[in-house]
């Protein structure tokens, strides 16, 4: 508000001063020039009547000469004042119109409306800094789960595009610099309902400043940052950034998991993907033989280090080794799009290839050329632009690495279902046979679609009926929580994945386990099962039915009928 007032006063200062001065001169002249009354006596107009006359004269309304007919001197002064005030008014109105069209002024008004809307939020929300490809995917995913989001991005075109998006909820957005603390505060960093700040800009330094500002101005808020430099990651970790996501290291870890435990990799992909998407098929990257890595940038180096750790000897193909550096092993200078370069790297004997340059066209060309020379290759391709999604789907690579999707999915899991992040971290210590068995169970829930994943906390807000029963000394078993409230003998299509009780974590908890107030549970299953479970959590009658089999009448009318004795029928004693 202060910025708007300052801009108005600064731009309108000269027109307003000119207008005031013109009015003052016109009024003063009318009070000094003598006139004649009805009897022919000399009279002078007082200041009030002079100001009144000049006020309607300047608008060219023309109520007439008051209180007596003017003398020629007065009429001459009125003519001068009339043209002067009209010209000054045109000058002031023109300046005002120019001010309204000024970008700085309009942005100040937009900024004021934005901060007002953010202050009016009464629900927990997430502040997303950066609305590029990653931010767009994340905002769509969060709003689809009825999560409130506020967006801050430097590019005005991106913010304008956000306002045209068909989102489930209204998302306040501002085109501002997320590296400025003032803009972060306007976007709700200090708001009591702000639960997390997500830094997804394409600049590591800005992400670093966002993380630092968030931890200093709102220490309780969860800070999640994207970083693709190990130096920046170490700097972020030094002051307590909650989660730091490097898409290149993340994917290289996924690739290593797929090589070591394909079942665990498949479980991760099924549980962390968006609900109702098609289930992906299992992949089996070769663990022996030669791999080709085309592109030795940040992504290529991350994959190279991981393959080396797995005992695989990769061959690097890089066009500019003087800029990216040279790996320790064998490497070939070139793009990898030409058959000559791939043959020099011995593609015929290779078992896998990674097309990891920062150009989508080159990556597609590398895979297609390599397949012509060796159709049995396991292909991994990097997708840089979201708009090329249909082309990469048509390519049919075994694994696709899209940095924006990787970061958005991980942030979505951390914000929407943090227990799933804990579950997958614990699952890394399980065997692949354990993961394959769980994959089989998850696959039986939904035939070909990703199941829903949700959390339930046993408290008065989410499970009032269960909390009341536990407080009354009743034993509420986990098995009763996934019983069908319409037929207690049937089990809902849901699997309890994790039970958290204090510092204790139970993977795939026993269905006979007794629940306690404060427990947190992670489930996966059908959306219909999630809706049915809500009846048991909130409705005491449904909980009694699945626990004991008794159905109690609800409402005083039905309870009154149930207490009335039944009349015996004819022939009954």
Short descriptors:
single chain, about 575 residues, alpha/beta, Helix Hairpins, Rossmann fold, 4 domains, six-stranded parallel sheet, 24 helices, flat, disordered C terminus
Give the number of DSSP strands.
Answer: 20
Q: What's the total helix number?
A: 24
**Shape-level CATH architecture of the largest domain:** 3-Layer(aba) Sandwich
Biggest β-sheet: strands ordered side by side in the sheet: 5-4-3-6-7-8
What's the number of structural domains?
4
Given as residue ranges, the uncertain stretches (5+ residues, pLDDT < 50) are 569-573
Radius of gyration using CA atoms only:
36 Å
Query: How far apart lie the N and C ends?
Result: 85 Å
Structure in words:
Helices cover 50% and strands 16% of the residues. The protein is of the alpha/beta class and 573 residues long. The chain contains 24 helices and 20 strands. The chain folds into four domains: 2-101, Helix Hairpins (Orthogonal Bundle), CATH 1.10.287; 105-245, NAD(P)-binding Rossmann-like Domain (Rossmann fold, 3-Layer(aba) Sandwich), CATH 3.40.50; 291-397, Rossmann fold (3-Layer(aba) Sandwich), CATH 3.40.50; 451-557, Regulator of K+ conductance, C-terminal domain (Alpha-Beta Plaits, 2-Layer Sandwich). Helix 15 links the parallel strand 12 and strand 13. The model is unreliable at 569-573 (pLDDT under 50). The strands form five sheets. The chain has a six-stranded parallel β-sheet, with helices on both faces. Strands 11-10-9-12-13-14 form a six-stranded parallel β-sheet, with helices on both faces. A four-stranded antiparallel β-sheet has the order 15-20-18-19. One of its GO terms (cellular component) is plasma membrane. It is a multi-pass membrane protein. It comes from Candidatus Sedimenticola endophacoides.
């Amino acid at each position: 508000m202060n910025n708007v007032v300052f801009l108005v006063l600064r731009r309108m200062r000269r027109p307003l001063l000119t207008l005031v001065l013109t009015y003052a001169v016109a009024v003063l002249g009318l009070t000094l020039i003598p006139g004649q009354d009805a009897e022919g006596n000399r009279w002078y107009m007082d200041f009030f009547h002079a100001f009144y006359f000049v006020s309607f004269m300047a608008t060219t309304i023309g109520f007439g000469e008051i209180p007596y007919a003017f003398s020629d001197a007065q009429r001459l002064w009125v003519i001068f004042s009339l043209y002067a005030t009209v010209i000054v008014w045109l000058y002031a109105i023109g300046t005002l119109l120019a001010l309204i069209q000024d970008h700085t002024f309009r942005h100040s008004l937009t900024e004021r409306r934005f901060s007002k809307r953010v202050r009016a939020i009464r629900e927990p929300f997430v502040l997303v800094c950066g609305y590029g490809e990653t931010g767009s995917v994340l905002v769509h995913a969060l709003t689809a789960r009825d999560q409130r989001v506020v967006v801050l991005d430097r590019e005005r075109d991106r913010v304008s595009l956000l306002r045209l998006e068909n989102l489930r909820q209204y998302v306040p957005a501002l085109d501002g610099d997320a590296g400025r603390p003032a803009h972060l505060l306007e976007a709700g960093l200090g708001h009591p309902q702000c639960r997390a700040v997500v830094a997804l800009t394409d600049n590591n330094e800005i992400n670093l400043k966002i993380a630092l500002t968030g931890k200093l101005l709102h220490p309780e808020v969860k800070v999640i940052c994207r970083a693709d430099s190990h130096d920046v990651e170490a700097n972020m970790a030094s002051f307590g950034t909650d989660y730091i996501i490097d898409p290149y290291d993340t994917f290289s870890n996924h690739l290593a998991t797929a090589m070591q435990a394909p079942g665990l990799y498949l479980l991760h992909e099924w549980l962390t993907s968006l609900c109702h998407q098609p289930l992906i098929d299992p992949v089996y990257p070769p663990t022996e033989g030669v791999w080709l890595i085309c592109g030795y940038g940040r992504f290529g180096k991350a994959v190279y280090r991981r393959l080396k750790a797995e005992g695989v000897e990769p061959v690097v193909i890089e066009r500019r080794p003087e800029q990216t550096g040279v790996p320790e092993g064998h490497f070939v200078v070139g793009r990898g799009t030409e058959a000559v370069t791939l043959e020099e790297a011995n593609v015929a004997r290779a078992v896998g290839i990674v097309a990891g340059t920062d150009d989508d066209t080159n990556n597609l060309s590398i895979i297609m050329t390599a397949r012509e020379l060796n159709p049995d290759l396991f292909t991994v391709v990097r997708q840089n632009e979201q708009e090329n999604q249909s082309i990469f789907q048509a390519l049919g690579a075994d694994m696709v690495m899209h940095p924006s999707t990787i970061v958005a999915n991980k942030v979505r899991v951390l914000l929407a279902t943090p227990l799933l992040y804990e579950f997958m971290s614990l699952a890394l210590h399980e065997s692949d046979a354990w993961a394959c068995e769980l994959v089989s169970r998850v696959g039986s829930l939904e035939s070909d679609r990703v199941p829903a994943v949700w959390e339930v906390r046993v408290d008065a807000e989410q499970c009032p009926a269960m909390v009341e029963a536990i407080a009354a000394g009743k034993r509420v078993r986990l098995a009763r929580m996934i019983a069908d409230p319409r037929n207690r003998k049937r089990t809902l299509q849901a699997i309890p994945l994790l039970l958290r009780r204090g510092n204790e974590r139970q993977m795939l908890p026993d269905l006979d386990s007794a629940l306690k107030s404060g427990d947190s549970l992670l489930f996966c299953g059908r959306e219909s099962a999630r809706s049915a479970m809500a009846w048991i959590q909130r409705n005491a009658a449904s909980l009694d039915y699945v626990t004991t089999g008794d159905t109690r009448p609800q409402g005083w009318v039905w309870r009154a009928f149930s207490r009335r004795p039944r009349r015996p029928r004819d022939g009954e004693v």
